[in-house]
Each structure stands twice: as C-alpha cells, then as structure tokens.
Amino acid sequence: MKIPLCASFGLWLASAAHAQTIVLDQAFSDWDAVPVAGANPANDHLKLVQAASNAGWAFFRVTLGEELALDESIVPHALELWVDVDGNPNTGHNAPSQGWELEIDFVQGEVRRYNANGVLTTLGFNDVGLHQSPTYSADDVELALSRADVNMAGAAVRWQWFDGLHGQYLPSEPATTELSNAASDHVPVPLERGPGTALRCMWWNMNGRMDQSGPQAAMGRMVAAVAPDVIGFCEVSDVSAGEVKGLLESWLPGSTWNVVKDDYDLMVASTLELGQGYPGVYRSFPVVVETGPVLGLPTLFTSSHLKCCGGPDNEAQRQSEADEYMAFQRDAMTPGGQLDLPNGAPIVFGGDLNMVGLSGPIHTLVTGDIFDNAAFGPDFAPDWDGTAMTELAVVQADRPMDYTWRNDNSDYMPGKLDYAIVSDGVVGVERMFGLQTSDMDAARLATYNLQAGDTWTASDHMPVVVDLAWGGDASEDLDEDGVPDGLDNCPEVPNPAQADFNGNGMGDACEDSDNDGLWDAEELNWGTDPLVQDTDGDGLTDSVEIYLYNSDPLSSDTDGDGVSDSIELLFPPTSGCPGDLNNDQSVTIADLLLLLSSIGQVC
C-alpha cells in the first residue's frame, strides 16, 4: 500500500531488508511497496524520502516541493545525500556521531568519500556508479548507487538527505535500511519485433563515427540485430545520404533503403518510400514516411537533435527549438498548412534532445504548451484525440534504467538524452528498448551476433528502438462504419467511403456546409448545392422543400404553373384556414417554418 505524504508519524527510521529492483524510468509506482523513511508534506523543499536495494544497487528516492535539476544550479539549491555504507556511525566522517563514508554533493558534481579514519578523497559521480532519473528537472527523482563501487557489503546502510540552502534534513535523524542481496528481477527484452508490430522505429546519435571502419562494424551488427524500418540519425554531418544508404544495404543484405539528409547533421532512413522532408525546422528534421501499406496512413517521422548542454543561453535555445517544432506540427495537423497531414496520421518524434537542466522543452513537445506564443503561435492539443503526446519510458533491454548516453570518464553521470514521443491516440507501442550490449550475457550476444563492446564502440549514445502498431483510443470505431475513429472524418456518423467533397477534413455525412438543415451527403445525393441554402432560388431552403413540402429543390416552380413554389406555399389560394400556409387544414410549426424561410423575399 502506498504510504501517503501526510503520514508524518510512525515512519520507518529502521526498516527491514526490502528486496526491490527499482526501474529508473521517471515513473514511481514501483516505490509504492517501499517503506517511507521520512516525510514532511508541509515542507516547501524536502517532502519524502525512501530507500531500497538488491544485490547490485542501492536505490534512493527524494520527492521535492519544487522542480530542481539535481546536478545543475539553474534553479539554486544545495541538496546532498549522505550515506554510511558500512552502517557504522563510528567510522567515516564526523565519527562517532555521524559516520558518513559518502557525501554526494549534486550541485558541485562531486562525491566526498571518507575512509574509516575520516580521511577525505574527492571523487566524481561515475566513480561510485551513480545513476539518476529523470535527467532533467523534476520534483520527484530516483537514484541508483552501485554497491560494488562504494563497497556497500554490510547488512545495513545508514543515510540522510541534507538541504544546505535551507538547513533541513530528511529524515530528521539518519535512517537505517537493511540491505537485500537478492538478484535483480529484470527480464531482458527480446530484440525481435513485438507481436503485431507494423513499424519498427529507431533513433541514434552516431557521434560523428559513421565514416570510421571500427564503429561501422559495430553499427552493422547492431542494425542487423534490430532490423528497423525507419531510423532517425543525428551527428552525421561527416557522411552523405548516399553513403548511409550503402552502409544500411550492406548491413541488411537484400533490403532497399531511402535516405534523406537535412542541411546539417540529421538524416531519416527508411525501407518505405519517403515523402516530403522539411529541413527548415531548426535542429529537427520532419519527414513524411509513406506508411500507408503498414499503418493505413502516412507517418510524420522526425529526427531531432536539440541544443546541447546547460546554462541560461542553451536552455533558452533548446526551448525555442522545441517551440518551433511544435508550431510546425500544429500547422501540419491544421488543413491549409505547408503540410496537410490526414486526420489520424501517426506522429512520432525522437532523437537526441539533450534534456538536461529545465524540463520545459520536453513539456512543450509532449503537451503542445508553447513557451513563446508571440513568436510561435498558440498552444494546441498535439494528438488526434485532443490530448497530449506520450513520452515513452524506454528502458534498456538488459538493464532496468533509461539512460542513453554514458561516458565514465566525464564529470556527468549517465543520462537519458535520447527520446521517443508518439501520438498514442492513434498508435500503440508493442515493444521498446535501448540497446547496451555490454550488459548482455554471452548467450544473448551469440543469439543476436553481437559483441559486448558494440554499443560504445559505435557511439557514445545507445540506439532507442520502438515498435508501433495501429492502436490507441482513436483506433476505436464508435459509428461501426469500418473506419477507426482516429481516421474517421465523421467518427459519430457512418461514412465508410470517407466522402468529403470540399476536402476540409469533415465528412459529408456529418457536415452541413450551408446550414440549411441537410447534410452535405444528402445534398449531393439530391443534386442540390451543399454550399447554397436555396439551390433553385425560389425563397425556400432546400431542406424545407424536401422535408416540409416535398417540392423540387432544383425547380423554383415545381408544378410549372408560372407561380413560384414559395408564393404558392405561403399564400395557397384554396386554404380556408388563416395561417395555414402549407394548405394542410391546420396551423402548425411547419407553417411558421415556411413563413420564416420567405422573410426577405422580394415579390
């Protein structure tokens, strides 16, 4: 049972061994079964902390009262995690009262490590195997610390969070958590396509290595193992589209690839035909992939590489690039733009988004909430069902973590820089994974003809793979006309042929273009003009003629007696009942409708 934030008493300051493999994926439901070690829901800063472990990792969660990027100071803070790896307060820093072996200072990007006698060594995040999710700013963060790298081999670990900016601790006294030696329960993801997959997408930052023979060999093995249908490449300024086409066809013999490149370092490659590309969108390259044979409609597929790194200028540039792309997507979903996507066409966006620092750009790409409306126009719902897109929680095939970039010699811990965002209103996700071959066992490597070093030989980013099928909320068929709602131009009215005479995206069966009371489909069937209320110009609307009097909407004088239909209907010579305009011997609403339809007529 999830322990609510308001449970501020009776918290676990000494918890039993809790075997738990936490998946670092920006989701937190797997923490529901983990005891809360400290909670202060009224606090504006530190609110809740938890810890869990398995044989390989100690996991920590911190819930905050504000959104922070732990390893950056763009939002000022001074959060630290203190860990007594041997569970003994009489060894380490400030012994005997504290006894910390590790003080992880996130803003300074350093780990202060003390030996049993309190002697200090300053290390980096990667020296202690630290991992974090999400990489960008958040008010809920989960971390993993390598037990082997910090020699956490005892029966318990003591720990505490410290907020140096506000002088606060959580829990108020160090928590002691017994350690579990249970193995990880993560089940490796098969690299084969998920059942029902219609389109396998991949995004990959190539780190400028596609012209190098050693990386090419590793790339080839990985592409052959994954066998994607469409790939979004970035950092490929060193190779041409033709060179990449040749590489792909050599890696996948018998395949034919279509490859287009933007004006710098982005490419889209596909075994399906490619339509128009739009290189003018800065640092994103949207391309129409002709997926009609597999998904029923073309797909808008984008390879993106947003501005790198932290700092106010880079943050602002990355946000502007996200705004600009979403303005393009809004235009593509709106009839009359530079690209008119058919209603319900799948939209998939991905690549190296360099999501460090503030979360604003990913929020914009998912929700359609544009930051600079003055420059890039209004906010909008970016999925066809009127909701947000979905950022996929892509976890590695052989490790329950979502990072896609890693450099153990850098000052930065591994991070999720590469993303996949999909219009889940019209497509379902059958399988997704990142591929880090160094985690695969010998049997899996042999099965897929891979080598342990392939991922990091090929690039400093791992590829992100997503299998798509037709699905989502918009795949329902409310009117049971055989056309899924996501594709249906009349989702609540049967329109199996999807007739749309004026091409405005609204079907003839559910649009009354001239507001005369007849659907466009009815008018086309009768031969009347769906854009004119009174086709024959006799003063009676087409619907009044057809449904109220059964006169001919295509002739102003149905009986050919030289008197227009409206005059005969409004002033019938044989009626003996005042107000009986339709001569049915009673005064009803039908007579009123006839009178209203003649207002404005010159006789």
Account of the protein in words:
The chain is 18% helix and 24% strand. The protein is of the alpha+beta class and 603 residues long. It folds into 3 domains: 14-178, Sandwich (Immunoglobulin-like); 199-475, Deoxyribonuclease I, Chain A (4-Layer Sandwich), CATH 3.60.10; 512-598, no CATH class. The chain has a 7-stranded mixed beta sheet with strand order 1-12-11-5-6-7-8, with no helix packed on it. The chain has a 6-stranded mixed beta sheet with strand order 15-16-14-13-24-23, with helices on one face. Strands 17-18-19-20-22-21 form a 6-stranded mixed beta sheet, covered by helices on one side. A hairpin with a 4-residue loop joins strand 15 (258-261) and strand 16 (266-270). The chain is elongated. The termini are far apart. 49% of the residues are buried. The model is unreliable at 1-18 (pLDDT under 50).
What's the arrangement of secondary structure elements?
Blueprint (H helix, E strand, L loop, with lengths): L13 E2 L20 E4 L6 E8 L3 E12 L10 E6 L17 E4 L4 E5 L5 E4 L7 E3 L4 E9 H4 L5 E8 L4 E11 L20 E7 L7 H14 L3 E5 L6 H11 L6 E4 L4 E5 L3 E4 L6 E6 L2 H4 L3 E7 L6 H21 L14 E6 L7 H8 L5 H4 L13 E2 L26 E5 L4 E8 L7 H6 L6 H5 L5 E7 L49 H7 L15 H8 L15 H6 L18 H10 L5
Parallel strand pairs: 1-12, 13-14, 19-20
Antiparallel strand pairs: 2-3, 3-4, 4-10, 5-6, 5-11, 6-7, 7-8, 9-10, 11-12, 13-24, 14-16, 15-16, 17-18, 18-19, 20-22, 21-22, 23-24
Helix pairs in contact: 2-3, 5-6
